[in-house]
Amino acid sequence: MSKRFVKVYPRFERLWHWTQVLLIFVLMFTGLRVSGVHALIPFGPAVMLHTIAALTLLVVWIFATFWLFTTGTWRQFLPKVEGMLATARYYAYGIFKGEEPPYQKQMLRKHNPLQAATYFGLKWFVFPAIWVSGIIYLTYNFWDSGSDSTFVLEVVRNIHLLAAYVIFAFVIVHVYLLTTGHGFREHVKPMVTGYDCIELTPEQEAYLETNEPGRLKPVTPAE
Amino acid sequence: MHAKRTITAFASLAFSLTLGLSASVAFAQEVIPPVPGEGSTADHSKFKILQQEFKSGPEVTAACLSCHTEADDQVMHSIHFQWEFDNPATGQTLGKSKVINAFCGNVVGNEPRCTSCHAGYGWDDMHSEPPQQSNAVDCLVCHDQSGQYTKLATGAGHPPLGDIPGQPVSGKTITGADAWAVDLMKAAQSVGMPTRENCGQCHFYGGGGDNVKHGDLSSALYDPDIHTDVHMSKDGANMVCSDCHTEESHSWAGSRYLLDAKDTIGTGEPGEHRFSATCESCHGTEPHPVNLMGIKLNDHTDKVACQTCHIPEFARGGIATKTKWDWSTAGRLNEAGQPIAEHNFTQSDGQELHTYLTIKGDFEWGENVTPYYAWFNGAVEYTLPEEEIDPSQVVEINKLLGTPDGADSRIWPFKRMVGRQSYDAGYNKLAYSHVWGPTTDTAFWTNYDWGKAIEAGMRAAGSDYSGEYGFIDTYMYWPITHMVAPAAEAMDCVECHAEDGRLVGLAGVVMPGTNPNSIVGRLGQLLVLLSALGVIGHGLLRLISRGKGGTH
């Protein structure tokens, strides 16, 4: 077993991630404006910006979904019960004692069990909730059929609102967790450069050296 | 037409010169002879029958009818002449001859004054139908283009006349100006299609003065700037009333008794004549451009009337409207026993408007007034004179029909007139009052005695009177549909999409931005707050415990 710098985030995934960051930020900012929480920009432009950002994000998601399934990366997001308790215990207790995290990034498993579960919930429930409710909200005039529709729209609006706040909360925790472990810079860096320090089995290392040398950074003396 | 051709010629001349094409210059310099008869094939000044010294309005009408053989019959079928309207939506019979309003009250008993605006001559008794002889129709009030025809304020529809046309005569006109002798021949020879000046003579002065009644119909519309009315301004479309209020046989589309509150037809088929005065009949049902903003605005048209956004305020253009009329205080005299007039409202043009008159009571005025908004399906239900009312409540003189979110309703802007007016305290119904009558000893404006005025009013109307009267608070609603602002001055989203927005309290519509602290909103904010507190707490604990244990 040796630690090597391996390209774990291909260019598409990095682009996907940062586009999402930008769009979700725009959506949160304009969404809060539209729902009346702040008034930093005028209402009309906020609605239009929100719509543009949402439609763009939907297109990005369509590409990402396609990518996830064709590359098999979707498996990364499957939750696993195994190790979850240990991870939870670490963040609730061990981290303060300076313990080692019970989970190490592996080549085929980028997320710890808690992360995987979180992303599973986001991708299967919260994200669909927000974009499905968003599309229904946006296309109101195509399905509006009188007084019942107002009630339906009110429900849809609240689902959208709640999902948005859940994503807001996720963003807070997500950004905070980057500060744990090796620190913020070290955590953000792989998502910028694509390379992360990964524990490789000799077989994996040999495979990469032979077949995908581009994904491996050469071992430097300092390392 | 002629002016337009001249401009075109100049424009093409300039264009040709720029290009330096001499052939085009020669073409453009050709003199185009003017086409005679603007908008008509007849020059009425050439008709022999109109070249006579007319002695009265009806004489002119008789001359008109010698060619326009069916005009009298058509006019007599219209609400302008009948002052009666059978409302199919409610089954009520409405019209000036039937209702009691929140302004001057009732016509009956006050005829020659109130019927001065009748589109006919000599209707001086509400107990009988309007005069039926064919020359009782007043053609000139709508068709005069000489600008000097008018009606006497107390003449049951007749114009002020005298020996020398143009010279002052006693009395006032229906617009409140000092009367002059009308030149009937000049008027008869000038006739043309109605302009804003024609309709405005009556409709701008309803309720006894400029803009008193409607709020969106004032003398400002004779020649409005573009900010006051984009349609009627010379800098805008320079439209006249009948451009929207389309006509069929002297009957006009558009009535506040029953209007088309939600026009789903729009412009109709190409070339189709629509008997409708809606915005949609010209602008279509999806009037905004197809872009990100326009699509969203078009989405609003199912629930929000065009007027709601495009007429942000009424009584614009410098003429105030009466917003409150309290009859109950009328009759106060000064120490010398003389009637009082107080003027405590200054209009933007500096004019002082009355806020108390002994004959009429207390008033409030408003300029650039924010409308009152309500769901409206276009029909109003009147509190008719014989209906029982609850004097402990504010009585709605004309209740707005329509249901929140109803398929036939939209959110409309209104002038909500606040009134305090007399009622029969024994029978709990609206009271008729006899206010005008210089020669009677019962008319309120002459004697300042409510008891006598109401008794006389009830008697004139043939209505049972208990002998007791009191005053009730009333609301009367006037749909706002004129004084459309240029598109750039339409209401901003935030006027409604805000916590203290204009539509607060209106059910049946989902309005983002009006309630950021709804239950779900609060729940979400709590979640975000807890997350923030959680990570702050977690981070602090990590800081405190730092240094113990390993590097990770």
Automatic annotation (TrEMBL), chain A:
A Gene Ontology molecular function term for this protein is: electron transfer activity
Q: Cite the Cytochrome b561 bacterial/Ni-hydrogenase domain residue spans from the record.
A: 8-194
Localization: Cell membrane
Q: How does it sit in the membrane?
A: Multi-pass membrane protein
Q: Which UniProt keywords apply?
A: Cell membrane, Electron transport, Heme, Iron, Membrane, Metal-binding, Transmembrane, Transmembrane helix, Transport
Stated family: Belongs to the HupC/HyaC/HydC family.
What GO terms describe the biological role, i.e. biological process, of this protein? respiratory electron transport chain
Q: Which GO terms describe its cellular component?
A: plasma membrane
Q: Note the InterPro entries from the entry.
A: Cyt_b561_bac/Ni-Hgenase (IPR011577), Di-haem_cyt_TM (IPR016174), Hydrogenase_cytochrome (IPR051542), Ni-dep_Hydgase_cyt-B (IPR000516)
Has the keyword RNA-binding been applied to this entry?
Answer: no
Full protein name: Ni,Fe-hydrogenase I cytochrome b subunit
Transmembrane regions listed in the UniProt entry: 21-41, 47-70, 116-139, 159-179
From TrEMBL, chain B:
Name the keywords, alphabetized.
Heme, Iron, Metal-binding, Signal
Cross-referenced PANTHER family, in alphabetical order? CYTOCHROME C-TYPE PROTEIN NRFB, DISSIMILATORY SULFITE REDUCTASE SIRA
Q: What Pfam families would the database entry show?
A: Cytochrome_C554 (PF13435), Cytochrome_cB (PF11783)
- Which SUPFAM superfamilies does this one have? Multiheme cytochromes
* Signal peptide stretch: 1-28
What domain of life does the native source organism fall in?
A: Bacteria
Annotated ranges, domain Cytochrome c: 266-361
Q: Which NCBIfam families match?
A: octaheme_Shew (TIGR04315)
User: What is the name listed in the Swiss-Prot or TrEMBL entry for this protein?
Assistant: Octaheme c-type cytochrome (Tetrathionate reductase family)
Which Gene Ontology MF annotations are present?
electron transfer activity; heme binding; metal ion binding; oxidoreductase activity
